[in-house]
């Protein structure tokens, strides 16, 4: 059900602001009740029967203390030209939709398609070196023929270098923020954030007025990883936000590349260890990365890639989940794993295991760019 009415949107926002309720619980409530409006119309007896919903949460919902706040927030978003994307709307980013920890709603400004055919996350240290600046500039320049959406975090160092070189090369770029859209952090990047909105934009899961508290940055990093088909780490120390982004990318079954650096440079330690521990592929050039991902130059075709004629194929003898996956691949051709997860309703980790088993059985094949198709 799409939140087409203001009432539904207000109720989703109200649930987001209800203390003690996170994204998983909100999805649970909406799924069982049939919509956010119905959640607030339900009584105690109905709500308490929902799995995972305890007395404290039920009483918080029934208090309805956040409805007025949500109504004001929706009005403020419209007044400021802030776009709201809800998880059950068609314009919500398809790459985020199947993720277990995806935001319930995103606040956005700009001119971008969140379902851009190719997306590249570029992350790294805030204390960028001259080597890091040169590498980032070269990456952006060499990405131009492939026309991806470049995703980063608008922070000092690698992030802002990537965003600014995208602007100079007329490449779409998206900044994911750890604050509200009206609280640009750091403030010195306000002009860049504004310029990005002509060909890209800024996005956050945080309501207007939210300050960039420390705890919000790891949450921001998961959105960068989730929106990106591939994440490139340019420079990083042994700890930091870039490595957190890598952990999320791996959990989401996304590709990760790391730029190697001198072994005696602290800002290259993280990249070198990612490569050493097989947590990232070594980045040597955009061309090599594009080949590994199965990219050709230019924008990819929108039509699904097919794997041959499977019209006579049947799937007897497989489990229900295996049959569902095989049927989807038969109907739509090769699919990326996150889209397959969304359409099948199977959790990503479970789906990855299913696909591996189906590979062993000679039914599916893995393809560049985290795609799978029938053999």
From TrEMBL:
InterPro entries tied to this protein: DprA (IPR003488), DprA_WH (IPR041614), DrpA_SLOG (IPR057666), Hlx-hairpin-Hlx_DNA-bd_motif (IPR003583), RuvA_2-like (IPR010994), WH-like_DNA-bd_sf (IPR036388)
Its family remark reads: Belongs to the DprA/Smf family.
GO terms for MF: DNA binding
Please name the GO terms of the biological process aspect recorded for this protein, alphabetically: DNA repair; DNA-mediated transformation
User: Cross-referenced Gene3D superfamilies, in alphabetical order?
Assistant: 3.40.50.450, Winged helix-like DNA-binding domain superfamily/Winged helix DNA-binding domain
Name-wise, this protein is DNA processing protein
Q: Which domain of life is it from?
A: Bacteria
Q: For this UniProt entry, which residues form the secretion signal?
A: none
The Helix-hairpin-helix DNA-binding motif class domain sits at 13-32, 45-64
Q: Coiled-coil stretches, from where to where? A: none
């Amino acid at each position: 059900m799409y939140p087409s009415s203001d009432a539904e949107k207000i109720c989703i926002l109200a649930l987001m602001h209800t203390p003690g309720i996170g994204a998983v619980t909100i999805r649970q409530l909406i799924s069982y009740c049939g919509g956010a409006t119905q959640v607030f119309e339900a009584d105690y007896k109905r709500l308490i029967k929902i799995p995972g919903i305890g007395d404290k949460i039920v009483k918080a919902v029934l208090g309805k203390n956040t409805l007025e706040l949500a109504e004001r927030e929706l009005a403020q978003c419209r007044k400021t030209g802030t776009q709201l994307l809800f998880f059950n709307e068609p314009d919500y980013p398809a790459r985020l939709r199947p993720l277990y920890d995806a935001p319930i709603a995103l606040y956005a400004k700009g001119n971008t398609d969140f379902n851009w055919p190719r997306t590249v996350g570029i992350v790294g240290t805030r204390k960028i070196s001259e080597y890091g600046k040169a590498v980032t500039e070269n990456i952006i320049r060499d990405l131009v023929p492939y026309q991806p959406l470049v995703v980063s975090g608008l922070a000092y160092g690698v992030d802002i270098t990537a965003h600014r070189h995208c602007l100079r090369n007329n490449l779409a770029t998206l900044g994911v923020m750890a604050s509200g859209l009206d609280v640009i952090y750091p403030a010195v990047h306000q002009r860049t954030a504004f310029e990005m909105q002509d060909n890209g934009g800024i996005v956050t899961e945080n309501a207007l007025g939210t300050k960039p508290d420390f705890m919000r940055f790891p949450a921001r990093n998961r959105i960068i990883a989730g929106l990106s088909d591939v994440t490139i780490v340019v420079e990083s120390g042994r700890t930091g936000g870039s490595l957190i982004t890598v952990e999320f990318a791996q959990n989401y079954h996304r590709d990760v590349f790391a730029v190697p650096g001198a072994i005696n440079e602290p800002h290259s330690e993280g990249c070198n260890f990612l490569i050493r521990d097989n947590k990232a592929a070594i980045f040597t050039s955009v061309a090599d990365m594009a080949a590994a991902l199965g990219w050709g130059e230019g924008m990819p075709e929108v039509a699904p890639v097919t794997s041959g004629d499977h019209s006579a194929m049947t799937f007897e003898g497989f489990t229900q989940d295996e049959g569902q996956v095989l049927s989807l691949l038969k109907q739509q051709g090769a699919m990326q794993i996150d889209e397959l997860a969304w359409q099948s309703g199977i959790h990503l980790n479970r789906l990855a295991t299913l696909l591996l088993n189906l590979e062993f059985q000679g039914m599916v094949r893995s393809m560049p760019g985290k795609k799978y198709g029938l053999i």
